[in-house]
Design a protein that fits this description.
34 helices, alpha+beta, two-stranded antiparallel sheet, disordered N terminus, single chain
Length: 880
């Protein structure tokens, strides 16, 4: 019997009374406070607080593209001044907000090294980039030649990025993505010298962080999960949408992508002098109307000007949720922007003589093209590049809304458009005297389509009618604003609809068969996306399969009445041969394997399922000491179990589940597996139950998901699928959850729990001891030897055998699962099909990373166990 643990099983969470006061926190951040005192003291002594340093101080101590080598000290001295009082206040807040926790977290020495190094290297990277880019981006470099940089923003951002090296993988990746996306946006669109210095400092800090933490820097890890890929792409689309808006709102944006504001927005009004010249010439009356429309554009005009960006931001949320509709919508917008960019390029190649009104943007682009062609080519390629990225990642976006969602959306949107069109024509006819020229009914009807288009799309052609009165302006601009605002709300609501309620006819039919008859513990996995369904002639049985490399790979055996199993097996094999496919039954039980052997099929054991009968579960006796310890320690730590479903869980719980899952995938640094291994996507199903380990502060320490096993319309058991825990949470949380599930479901009258299968692992039971996974002494064939070798090779990465060893502490019953194939000559194709099913996201980069992890494992035995499968220590953080 184990003694009570000397250390708490959870990371201590200090309560409010034990936390340090703010004065204590500040006392531990002496470097940060010292800098703030110096910052304000120098500003006061040099009378720089109100308007920044004077011309002489700027010349000597502010950093400019020409400071080196004559004023090399400006690399450091630029950090202790700000442009004006607003800069002093904002940058002081930034230093305190980031510097105080960073100095305490990193230590004073590492903090000082990171700050000084980031400042110096950031300036050096920015100056080096300007020197190298002179030939390609000469016009941009010339425009920022007179810019200067002052303030501590560069070194504090660089230090913050260095500090991320000590964070968990998930938050390190998220923070870096957000910071770099923001800094890149500012550098590419605003394009100021200060933006380049901050970006360089962030890059330097990121590289320095691991060195300060005592380890080597690592290159970017491949995206390991579908969810993470969606988040990254949605972030990319959001940045591309915000960029033109930022460039349009910044008065003197000079970045290489800043001219996109002339293509995709039309925010900036024309110059007042140009307006006066236009309107004094009667011949240019329509150009005058265009200029007036731009000049008087208020919030409604700005909204219509940035409409493409608004829609892209809206669809980015749909991309994050994996919605196919959002992917299609984003793709169409990017294709449209590519076409618009091509039209703009054609306009540059065939310039017009007009340089006023709506032609201002084209003239600006012509100027860029004449001075530096690459400056024009770069932004015009952006929408095309995003289009290619969207096409390459289309497999990530397979989630569809419930049936009829978009039909109802289309009806509502068209109804709103029709209603607003009638309102515009009616109000315009009533207010005809407030338009110039006075329109008739035909003119108003012809003008209706333009009211729904983005402002920048209609100003290339002078308007036929122009509003002059206030009421006319409200009607003229309000129609489009109201339409797109309401349409945006309706589109966003479709993303909130639970996708799991949408199933095609085949999936619904398969679910009915599962519930009406009997399948295996894997049967509910057949309802996951990616499977196709073949139904038997009787209609009472089906087989779920997917076709790859000419192989029809099934997920489990036939589902339906047991009396039809063998007949359905033969019927499906004939169906496959009729289509030119090789049938392969994957993860089937011993009974079906025996029948296939008698029919001349070959087989190989591919997994070991662990089944826990609930009628005898009590977790009493010495052999269950670890389980009882987990239960007792959870009670002492105030951790309880709670049944829920992902869809019905509070939003805060959903966020924590997502955080735990993504942390595990990111830390694993390996492609996320599928097929018989569920992810967050499969968790979002009302039939799937989630069991949480949650404490008094509503912190989720671990989550497991359970798939129902039906027999004749009743749930008789549950299969463990998703199994992940928080890295800093209650260490025995998985043992606690599985034991709690067994006791709870026993009380509900269930017959068994399946702890699911462990691929490429097997066990030989010894009645005298706890079963331990080990290969057979005499594998029956070469394929079995190959699978044993593959299981041993992948063990350091995925830990299947360690997982099976972990499950052994529950004393389950072991049931082998087999792969059945008709001909040994088809094994190469079968192996490829299985690999593609389990690793649908495997690409060249992920494959190389997998190979590195496999073949370097034996040489790293002395390294930290952080990246090893934690199930080696008996407490897995992964899933079955």
């Amino acid at each position: 019997m184990h003694a009570p643990a000397s250390e708490p099983e959870t990371r201590p969470v200090p309560d409010v009374r034990s936390r340090r006061s703010w004065t204590g926190r500040l006392r531990s951040a002496q470097l940060t406070l010292g800098f703030v005192i110096l910052f304000w003291g120098l500003g006061a002594l040099t009378s720089s607080l109100a308007t920044g340093p004077d011309a002489q101080l700027r010349l000597n101590f502010a950093l400019t593209p020409r400071s080196v080598p004559d004023h090399w000290w400006a690399v450091m001295t630029s950090a202790v001044w700000a442009r004006d009082l607003t800069g002093y206040v904002l940058e002081t807040a930034l230093v305190l907000l980031l510097g105080v926790p960073l100095e305490r977290r990193m230590g004073r020495r590492a903090y000082a090294i990171a700050a000084v190094s980031s400042q110096i290297l950031g300036a050096g990277i920015a100056l080096g980039f300007l020197a190298l880019a002179q030939g390609l981006l000469g016009s941009w470099i010339a425009e920022i030649g007179s810019h200067l940089f002052v303030g501590p923003s560069a070194f504090i951002i660089g230090t913050a990025m260095a500090g991320t090296a000590s964070m968990a993988t998930l938050w390190r990746r998220r923070i870096r993505l957000v910071v770099f996306a923001l800094l890149l946006l500012l550098a590419l669109y605003s394009g100021g010298f200060a933006d380049l210095v901050r970006l360089g400092a962030a890059g330097a800090g990121t590289a320095l962080g691991p060195l300060l933490m005592g380890r080597r820097p690592r290159f970017a890890r491949p995206v390991s999960s579908r969810h993470e890929g969606r988040v990254l792409l949605s972030l990319l689309i959001a940045v591309s949408a915000i960029g033109p808006v930022v460039a349009g709102l910044i008065p003197h944006a000079v970045g290489p992508l800043s001219i996109l504001r002339f293509l995709f927005t039309n925010i900036q009004p024309v110059d007042p002098q140009t307006l006066q010249a236009l309107c004094s010439d009667p011949v240019q009356a329509k150009d005058c109307a265009v200029a007036q429309l731009q000049l008087r554009a208020g919030a409604g005009g700005i909204f219509m000007a940035i409409l493409p960006s608004f829609l892209l931001l809206l669809l980015a949320e749909g991309l994050r949720r994996g919605r196919r509709f959002a992917w299609v919508g984003t793709l169409l917008i990017q294709v449209g922007l590519s076409v618009l960019a091509g039209i703009a390029l054609a306009g540059v190649l065939q310039p017009t003589t007009s340089a006023t009104g709506a032609s201002e943007g084209i003239v600006a682009i012509e100027g860029s093209a004449s001075s530096q062609p690459f400056t024009l080519a770069l932004p015009l390629l952006l929408p095309l590049a995003l289009t290619i990225i969207l096409l390459a990642t289309r497999r990530l976006f397979h989630v569809q809304a419930p049936k009829g969602t978009y039909r109802r959306l289309a009806v509502r949107v068209l109804a709103i458009a029709a209603m607003l069109s009638v309102v515009y024509v009616g109000a315009g006819f009533f207010l005809a005297q407030d338009f110039s020229p006075v329109p008739g009914l035909p003119e108003l009807l012809a003008d209706v389509p333009d009211r729904f288009l983005p402002l920048g799309f209609v100003l290339d052609v002078p308007p036929a009618i122009f509003p002059q009165g206030t009421a006319a302006v409200l009607v003229y601009e309000g129609v489009g604003v109201v339409f797109w605002a309401v349409a945006g709300v309706l589109i966003f609501r479709t993303f909130l609809h639970q996708a799991h309620t949408r199933h095609d006819a085949s999936t619904e039919r398969a679910r009915k068969v599962i519930k009406a008859w009997e399948g295996s513990s894997l049967s509910w996995m057949t309802t996951w996306p990616g499977n196709m369904y073949w139904f038997s002639a009787s209609g009472r049985s089906f087989v779920a399969y997917r076709v790859s490399t000419g192989v029809a790979l099934t997920l489990g055996g036939p589902v339906g009445p047991k009396s039809e199993t063998t007949a359905v097996f033969d019927e499906f094999a004939r169906y496959c041969r009729g289509n030119g496919w090789t049938p392969c039954f994957y993860s089937v039980p011993q009974e079906l394997r025996d029948y296939a052997d008698s029919s001349g099929w070959s087989s190989a054991q591919v997994a070991q399922e662990t089944v826990l009968p609930l009628n005898s579960v009590s977790f009493k006796g010495k052999k269950f000491q670890d389980i009882r310890t987990a239960l007792n320690n959870a009670a002492k730590a105030g951790i309880r179990y709670e049944w829920t479903s992902y869809a019905s869980a509070p939003f805060s719980v959903q966020v924590q589940i997502e955080e735990i899952s993504e942390e595990w995938v990111a830390d694993k640094n390996m492609p996320e597996m599928g097929f018989t291994l569920g992810s967050l996507d499969e968790l979002d199903d009302p039939e799937v139950r989630c069991l949480l380990a949650i404490d008094k502060r509503h912190t989720v320490h671990a989550v497991t998901s359970w798939l129902p096993v039906y027999r004749n319309g009743h749930v008789v058991g549950w299969t463990l699928d998703f199994m992940r825990r928080r890295s800093g949470g209650f260490r025995a949380s998985i043992e606690f959850l599985i034991a709690s599930a067994a006791l709870s479901l026993k009380d509900e009258g269930c017959e068994f729990l399946s702890l699911s299968g462990a691929p490429l692992a097997r066990v030989e039971e010894d009645p005298s001891e706890v079963p331990r996974p080990r290969p057979r002494s005499r594998p029956p064939g070469s394929l079995d030897r190959l699978l044993d070798w593959l299981g041993a090779t992948l063990e350091p990465v995925y830990g299947f055998r360690s997982l099976l060893a972990f499950k052994a502490k529950f004393r389950p019953r072991y049931e082998p699962l087999y792969m059945l194939y008709p001909d040994a000559a088809s094994l190469p194709a079968v192996g490829t099909a299985v690999a593609r099913a389990y690793l649908p996201m495997l690409n060249l980069g992920a494959g190389l990373a997998l190979a590195r992890r496999i073949f370097r494992w034996p040489t790293r035995s002395g390294t930290s166990g952080r990246n090893r499968p934690s199930s080696r220590r008996g407490r897995p953080r992964g899933r079955t």
